[in-house]
Amino acid sequence: MARTATVTVPATSANLGPGYDSLGLALELRDHVTATLTDEPGVTVTIEGQGAGVLPTDESHLVAKTIIDACAVFGLEVTGLEISCQNAIPQGRGLGSSAAAIVAGLVLARELADAPATEDDLLQMANAIEGHPDNVAACLLGAMTIAWIEPDGLANAVSMNVHPDIFPLVAVPNIELSTEKARGLIPEQIPHVDAAFNVARSALLVASMIGDPTFLLEATDDCMHQTYRTKAYSESMTLVHALRTQGIAACISGAGPSVLALCNASNAQQAMEIVSTQGFTAIPVPIADQGAIVVPQPPQS
Question: How large a percentage of the chain has pLDDT more than 70?
Fold first, then answer.
């Protein structure tokens, strides 16, 4: 009998301004992925929504590759695999689409193989694939996460609830930007004054996100990565400056080119209007308090 599992995974926004490669936020914009093991050899992937007609539909699809590799680690050899993706997360926009695919694949592999893998096990595997833990931690655990690498190279992360008065708004442009290209624009060495600036803002940002949002504008400022990447997303930085000039906490989402605005009840509508005038698609999206969620399968008749 074929074995089937379904998971939903949230979009994520990493960095949040100063927290480069460490801070992440899960957003209620979810991909739904169903995977079925079959006795018929081969891999087929069907895609609806974001990425349809663009992403591969064979074993090279990131979800498929992750499932096959993870199942091998869990001691299960995959003969045949059918995957159905209903994607809501924009591709190549700095909203964690690759992290979502990786986490979805790992969780599905755990379910299909009935493996006793813990969240920490999945985090290590996801970090090994992605190369940095910020997005995968938020996608796996939900809410706001702080992720870091231990001296032994293992990833670690903690998740915390966000203040209820914070209302995220994502501004999505029509262009894409690869994470590899964006990361390549940051110099290997950062001036001491810029590092100290970001350390202070990162600490303030955590306090603002979970305790007092009053300082969100100051807390989302950055000297470490956005300036160096400006030439890759000049229109996005123009939008960031336009929002911040009006007192709205805004930053580049992950590697970009999407923009994240952390609004409150009094400025959310103004943020929507500013985003719309700049030619971006404005998406108000709640914070996802839960990360990856396994959807129970209907009982078989």
Answer: 99
- Per-residue pLDDT at 162: 98
Only one residue has tokens 């893998």, namely 117
Domain co-membership, 246 together with 124: no
pLDDT range class, residue 1, cuts 50, 70, 90: very low
Residues 6+ apart with CB under 8 A from 287: 25, 26, 27, 28, 143, 144, 162, 166, 168
Please state at what angle helix 134-141 crosses helix 119-130, rounded to 10 degrees.
Answer: 150
Whole-prediction pTM value?
0.95
SS3 state of residue 289: coil
CATH number of 103's domain? 3.30.230.10
What is the extent of the structural domain holding 174? 167-284
Residue 150 tokens read as 């231990």
Q: Is residue 13 part of a domain?
A: yes
